[in-house]
Amino acid sequence: MRADVLRAHHRAIARRRSEQDIQSEFGYRVRALRVERDFSQEELAPLAGMHWSALGHIEAGRRTASLQVISGLAVALDVAPSALLP
């Protein structure tokens, strides 16, 4: 494989890992606050305007949260949106 192609491939992998790290950290923070406030996913999700399965995917780092979702979660958890961001 050509060196320039290999470098581009490694950069793409690093970028994907970085995005996954951000999603995972965001999900961890949401889960930690949810548990701290004694909410189940089924209880918190409707307060944030979403389905509980979507919340589960976000907490697991498998789904990206839109600004609308971040805002809804922040309101439901009674925190500033910035508290959810890594």
From TrEMBL:
Coiled-coil region: none
Domain HTH cro/C1-type residues, every copy: 30-84
SUPFAM superfamilies assigned: lambda repressor-like DNA-binding domains
Alphabetized InterPro entries for the sequence: Cro/C1-type_HTH (IPR001387), Lambda_DNA-bd_dom_sf (IPR010982)
GO molecular function, one term: DNA binding
UniProt-recorded name of the protein: XRE family transcriptional regulator
Organism in which the protein naturally occurs: Jiangella anatolica
Lineage: Bacteria, Bacillati, Actinomycetota, Actinomycetes, Jiangellales
